[in-house]
Amino acid sequence: MMRSGGMMLTYAPCFTFLTCALIVSSTANLDHSPQDLNIRQVTDNQNPISTTNLLLLGTTTELRFKSFIQKYEKSYSTHEEYVHRLGVFAKNFIRAAEHQAMDPTAIHGVTQFSDLTEEEFETMYMGLGGRGGTLLGKDPVDSAAAAAAKSTAMMDRATDLPESFDWREKGAVTNVKMQGRCGSCWAFSTTGAIEGANFIATGKLLNLSEQQLVDCDHKCDLKEKDACDDGCSGGLMTNAYNYLIEAGGIEEESTYPYTGKRGECKFNPDKVAVIVRSFTSIPVDESQIAANLVHNGPLAIGLNAVFMQTYIGGVSCPLICGKKHLNHGVLLVGYGSRGYSILRLGYKPYWIIKNSWGVHWGEHGYYRLCRGHNMCGMNSMVSAVGIQTS
Ligand SMILES: *[C@@H]1O[C@H](CO)[C@@H](O)[C@H](O)[C@H]1NC(C)=O
């Protein structure tokens, strides 16, 4: 198989390991095991029964916390846990206000993640899997490599693009899915790109199996040998394409359904629905990204999800958002031209991003991020996938 021939370029700046900015869903996994609680408590350096937290009992903060619990159907096994989570909630309430100040064109507030510390939200069970450390923080853009790739990569025509574009309207995007308490964003980003490519090639929209990737894909990055796909502990879309090229394809959700837990690999080659042939890393230039999106289909991207924990809606255009700390894999499905931004003085273009945190998060499961500023590093890990058509 001409695997390396299939990959059109390899400058993908994949020095980052996507841990998916943990979420706890309201619907999935309410059966917290005691072990989970321990882990989450030790990651927070606050005493679960601190006096500060006890002082919150009976305040308006607790009233807000109670309606949060009701809205998102949360349950805590002990009173200590309740008080601890109340303290976390109070801090997140302040953090949402800070995010609002930093990102005035979006709406930030209480979300289903408001009882998780920033560390829990971001790193999930990191360290539990014996992974020495993450690969975060390295510069994802090697400019020399990027420059070299630009000469070899096919530059897409970035002129004559429509003013706005949305693959959802064309039927190339499946419903918003829910990863649950599992750092499997990279698998959802991967299936999203393949679902789109398959729709464009065949006219058929299929739900593809993230669970196959969670259970069976242990591929490591060619350059960063520690960056291996690791079920609910994180992974990379480029690794997943390589796994799928070798495995022979991907099953549908219906034959290999999502459980949100790493299990034994049950991949059955006879049930392959889509065969992955190749993938391409897209240059970091946002007009190239737009051209590739329009011409090739939805694109898998990595970004820094720090503002997403409190995001409720609007165009997110934070004053400061680290471009190097990519921790979440999502799917770019379109763009628009007139999202209002006070900060950027006027109507500014934005990207439309499909997330995998269910429909109750963000704008019916979607995130809008302002375009043209390499915002939150969204330009630095972008890929398109090529499938086999018969
Ligand atoms: C994908 O799965 C969801 C949830 O089961 C379902 O509602 C939706 O119709 C499916 N989409 C396609 C294209 O099969």
From TrEMBL:
Look up keyword Translocase and say if it applies: no
In Swiss-Prot or TrEMBL terms, this protein is called: Cysteine protease
Query: What lineage, starting at the top, does this entry show?
Result: Eukaryota, Viridiplantae, Streptophyta, Embryophyta, Tracheophyta
- The signal peptide annotation in the UniProt record is 1-28
Q: Name one GO biological process term.
A: proteolysis
Q: Which organism is it from?
A: Cinchona calisaya
Recorded hits in InterPro entries, A to Z, give: Papain-like_cys_pep_sf (IPR038765), Pept_asp_AS (IPR025661), Pept_cys_AS (IPR000169), Pept_his_AS (IPR025660), Peptidase_C1A (IPR013128), Peptidase_C1A_C (IPR000668), Peptidase_C1A_papain-like (IPR039417), Prot_inhib_I29 (IPR013201)
Give the record's family classification. Answer: Belongs to the peptidase C1 family.
SUPFAM superfamilies in the record: Cysteine proteinases (SSF54001)
